[in-house]
Amino acid sequence: MFNILHLKKWSSAIFLLVLTQAAIYAQATFNIKGSVKDANNEAIIGAAIMIDGTSVGTITDVEGMYDIIGNLPTGDYTVSISYVGHSTSFREIKLSEGSNSQM
Questions:
Q1: Predicted confidence (pLDDT) per residue in 48-70, tens digit
Q2: How far is CA 8 from CA 34, 36, 44, in A?
Q3: Each residue of 38-65: b (16+ CB within 10 Å) or e?
């Protein structure tokens, strides 16, 4: 009888722990895509696109295009776009489940 009561307590504790962790760390699957061009409308190859405060990012391809697909906690983020010789640009985005952003 002691073992059954002990097991019920641990089962309840583990269930609550898993449930609270899932709620705290709600993830959003997202897709951010776009292109980076200079003042002459020329593609910028190798520009860095980063979601600030994370390790999520990419660089532009030979056509200046980029596509970021990932998972992060839902919320507001700042995307920075940087390239040597150009000033860094910032964009605000809101990530929620299934977000698709075109920049």
A1: 999 999 999 999 999 999 999 88
A2: 52, 57, 60
A3: eeeeeebeebbbbbeeeebbbebeeebe
